[in-house]
Design goal:
- The chain is of the alpha+beta class.
- The chain folds into three domains: 132 residues, Trypsin-like serine proteases (Thrombin, subunit H), CATH 2.40.10; 89 residues, Trypsin-like serine proteases (Thrombin, subunit H, Beta Barrel), CATH 2.40.10.10; 84 residues, Pdz3 Domain.
- Helices cover 15% and strands 36% of the residues.
- The strands form three sheets. It has a six-stranded antiparallel β-barrel with strand order 1-2-3-6-5-4. The protein has a six-stranded antiparallel β-barrel with strand order 7-8-9-12-11-10. Strands 13, 14, 15, 16, 17 and 18 form a six-stranded antiparallel β-sheet that branches.
């Protein structure tokens, strides 16, 4: 995997190649003062591997052997990656571009943002990348994506809310195109050489809902700045945990369908089943995933009772009360954090 990071920009299409070259030239041509301070931002990109036991809650969906990218953000070698690569892992390592592999401690996993942190057991001797301002990143901006497949040019095609089926919501996610294959933990780098986001997903509607336009979704780096101290000291962001139900849902034509229920989770304990449709939360109708999540979270912290109105097929409407849980308690996390 790391060997492929030495390769030059892969030609995905004529447009992608052109944008990639422009971005690369922009990064290389940083002003002398700025370049001296930052070095080569591509040098901070690393690989990440993690091993997860078969007993882990996420083993069935995310696998037991995971690999992707990361980026060095601290002088001590602290590596930022996407959290699902290291979620419930018992062993992790960082892979440098010269092929060297360094064992790493799992420092943090933050469910609300999706970020994960690793600290190598020995110094990496890699200059960290500087963090940029993703809040100021508009659509139609040329950027660089860098991960295990090497650097590749891209364009920010939209900035918008993203609601994930796993009870996850980002208010201002970054969507880019064309798609980058090894997106998990990939670095999104601006023309000034600063880090703007961390790769999370490949999506089919990067430009907007309902429009077929493949691309990637990145978690904005500005979400890291307010919580980085908490992640380093506590392994997660501080504050009360949001109520979690253990549902995997899909938004379709103004309805929230339940596709899967976490075994032994709060929703399963309340009798909620695959195929049920969520009609309302606390008597208030819901028509989208983001609306569903916000209404749940507005009720209080983890542990609160969540009243749902469900449509159970031919059985009609049912009122169900779910005693919400804390997602961190459900996951089998590394005891080091």
């Amino acid at each position: 995997m790391i060997e492929s990071m030495r390769n030059s920009v892969r030609a995905r299409s004529l447009t992608a190649l052109t944008v990639g070259l422009l971005c690369l030239l922009t990064v290389i041509a940083l002003p002398v003062k700025e370049a001296t301070a930052q070095g080569n931002p591509l040098g901070a990109v690393v690989g990440v591997r993690a091993e997860v036991p078969p007993s882990a809650r996420t083993a069935g969906t995310l696998g037991t052997e995971r690999e992707g990218g990361g980026v060095v953000i601290g002088a001590d070698g602290l590596v930022l990656t996407i959290g699902y690569l290291i979620l419930e892992a018992v062993q992790a390592e960082v892979q440098l571009q010269d092929g060297k592999t360094v064992p790493a401690e799992i420092v943090a996993y933050d469910y609300d943002t999706g970020f994960g942190l690793l600290r190598p057991a020995t110094p990496l001797n890699v200059a960290p990348i500087e963090l940029g301002d993703s809040d100021a990143l508009p659509a139609e901006t040329q950027v660089l994506v860098a991960g295990p497949d090497g650097p590749s040019g891209a364009v920010v095609v939209s900035r918008r809310e993203f609601a994930g089926y796993w009870e996850y919501l980002l208010p201002n996610a970054i969507f880019t195109a064309p798609p980058y294959r090894s997106f998990g933990g990939a670095a999104l780098i601006g023309s000034d050489g600063r880090l703007l986001g961390i790769g999370s997903l490949i999506v089919g509607d990067a430009r907007g809902p309902g429009e077929t336009f493949p691309g990637n979704m990145f978690v904005p780096i500005s979400l890291l700045k307010p919580i980085i101290a908490d992640l380093k000291s506590q392994g997660r962001s501080a504050g009360p945990a949001k109520p979690w139900l253990g549902l995997f849902t899909q938004e379709l034509r103004g309805h929230v369908f339940i596709n899967r229920v976490s075994p032994d989770g709060p929703a399963a304990s309340a009798g909620i089943q695959e195929g049920d449709i969520v009609v309302a939360v606390g008597g208030e109708p819901v028509a989208s995933l983001s609306e569903f999540y916000r209404k749940i979270w507005a009720l209080g912290d983890a542990g609160i009772e969540v009243p749902l109105t469900l449509l159970k097929g031919a059985n009609g409407f049912h009122e169900v009360s779910v005693k919400s849980g804390d997602r961190y308690d459900y996951l089998k996390l590394n005891p080091t954090y």
